[in-house]
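Here is the promised in-class demo. Please do not try to memorize the tokens; focus on the logic of going from shape to residues.
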């Protein structure tokens, strides 16, 4: 990564200065050192040109980088100009952030630093292609060919398999799946153990509808990863970390059926067959409040997205809405003549916290207006008791299933059908949808089935639990899936590779529910052993 602090120093600015500060400093220094001012001073003209170029380079980098999310970069303090390698790394980071024009500039600066930098020419050529600048791309590809003919040391570092892989990866991103398959096949021909070539060829096959070939490549990738002991995908991610139980919450007197983490990262709520809800501090594990009004066992609980409300569903056939700050019961949905007619099994708030979806053993899903308590619609087409319900992170889709042979997907607002996904002949006790993209995870007995819900494609199964899976939750970054099971364990899965990352053990009975904190460092679980646990990574 380019050394941003060096550039700030060039412009006489403090790190983190605003765009306006950067522009103001650039105007002042550019005026001071513009070469035209030294046209009659030959002895200073060379220095002015060098300083003017450096000032412009600093300005271009800081303006471009300031428009990106700071979390994408980790600048290092430096007292030297960035190297060619650092410019190249910056370009790669820009590509990952979708900033192609800035990537071109960074690759260009890398080439200026090192005239024979083949990898920079190669990357810039691919980027020009993505921008539709085919003339510039051809010129860079010609330069790559020239460097290869010259047999420079750079070529030795970038073998044919590397070049073919980069080309295939770019084609995959551009949705040129047939061309990508050919490129990755070339890579595999040159290097039969190239794990990432199998990974991304599998994706290309899947996009073209070649499911058998995709499955074969995915299996080969998994086999190679096991042989190599590798868990990392092509773009580096952090390896799995150690998770440990930091708090065991044991104030309930019966099965702890549900658990939910507030999006503010400060609170946790649990539901129990003892007919109470309890609010806890995530940091200390201390009990904050107890909510009590249900007349039978509580089976599920949910936090609103603004962390202000809690919803609970019970065997008493009602849903109750609670004020987190005061602990007051605000309203109750359902009664003897309206609402669900059997146990409420699952709940999900919409992102705008105006609506609440509920599922029940009465074979219906219902949508409620949170403020008024009015039932908006009831879906009654499912032929079996419904055990699982999830709402997409955009609030537009709900998915639900249970003891039937399918997962039903509906438009949240209207209840109109979107599609139905077939399932194995196993009870579907949990379903989860990823935050971005179109992944859907489904608990099918002791296995987890991953679907691409947009294309209605079944991707792969995750196997590892020995008894039925009861709960699923995606991490906020969509990289990890956590599952809870009747086998008393909690497992974490790398959703990119399908590999098992970690197994958390400590509950003495079936795990009933799991929740993943948005920061990725906290998991909460509840169990039939009458406890809930808070797990922390690191």
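The designed amino acids, position by position:
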């Amino acid at each position: 990564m380019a050394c941003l602090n060096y550039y700030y120093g060039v412009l006489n600015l403090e790190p983190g200065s605003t765009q306006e500060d950067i522009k103001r400093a650039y105007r002042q220094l550019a005026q001071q050192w513009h070469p035209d001012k030294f046209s009659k001073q030959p002895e200073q003209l060379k220095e002015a040109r060098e300083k003017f170029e450096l000032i412009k380079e600093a300005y271009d980098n800081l303006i471009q980088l300031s428009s990106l999310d700071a979390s994408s970069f980790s600048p290092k303090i430096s007292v030297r100009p960035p190297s060619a390698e650092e410019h190249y790394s910056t370009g790669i980071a820009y590509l990952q952030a979708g900033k192609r024009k800035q990537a071109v500039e960074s690759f260009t600066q890398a080439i200026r630093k090192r005239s024979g930098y083949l990898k920079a020419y190669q990357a810039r050529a691919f980027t020009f292609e993505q921008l539709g600048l085919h003339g510039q791309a051809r010129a860079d590809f010609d330069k790559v060919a020239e460097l290869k003919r010259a047999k420079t040391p750079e070529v030795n570092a970038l073998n044919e398999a590397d070049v073919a892989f980069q080309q295939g990866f770019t084609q995959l991103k551009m949705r040129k799946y047939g061309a990508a398959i050919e490129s990755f096949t070339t890579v595999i021909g040159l290097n039969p153990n190239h794990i990432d070539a199998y990974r991304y060829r599998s994706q290309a096959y899947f996009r073209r509808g070649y499911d058998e070939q995709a499955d074969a490549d995915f299996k080969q990738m998994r086999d190679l990863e096991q042989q190599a002991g590798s868990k990392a995908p092509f773009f580096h991610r952090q390896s799995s970390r150690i998770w440990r139980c930091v708090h065991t919450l044991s104030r309930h007197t019966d099965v702890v059926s549900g658990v939910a983490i507030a999006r503010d990262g400060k609170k946790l709520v649990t539901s129990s067959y003892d007919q109470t809800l309890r609010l806890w501090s995530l940091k200390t594990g201390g009990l904050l409040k107890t909510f009590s009004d249900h007349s039978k066992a509580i089976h599920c609980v949910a936090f609103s997205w603004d962390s202000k409300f809690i919803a609970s569903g019970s065997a008493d056939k009602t849903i109750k809405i609670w004020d987190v700050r005061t602990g007051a019961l605000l309203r109750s949905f359902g009664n003897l003549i309206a609402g669900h007619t059997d146990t409420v099994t699952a709940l999900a708030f919409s992102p705008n916290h105006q609506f609440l979806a509920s599922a029940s053993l009465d074979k219906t899903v219902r949508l409620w207006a949170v403020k008024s308590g009015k039932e908006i619609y009831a879906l009654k087409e499912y032929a079996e008791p419904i055990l699982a319900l999830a709402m997409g992170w955009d609030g537009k889709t709900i998915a639900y299933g249970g003891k039937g042979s399918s997962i039903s997907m509906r438009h949240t607002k209207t209840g109109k059908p979107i599609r139905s996904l077939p399932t194995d002949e196993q009870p579907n006790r949990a379903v989860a949808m990823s935050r971005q993209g179109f992944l859907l995870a489904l608990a099918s007995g002791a296995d987890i089935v991953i679907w691409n819900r947009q294309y209605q494609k079944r991707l792969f199964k995750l196997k590892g639990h020995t008894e039925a899976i009861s709960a699923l939750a995606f991490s906020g970054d969509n990289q990890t899936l956590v599952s809870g099971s009747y086998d008393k364990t909690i497992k974490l899965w790398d959703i990119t590779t399908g590999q098992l990352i970690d197994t958390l053990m400590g509950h003495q009975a079936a795990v009933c529910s799991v929740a993943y904190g948005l920061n990725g460092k906290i998991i909460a679980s509840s169990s039939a052993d009458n406890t809930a646990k808070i797990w922390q990574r690191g």
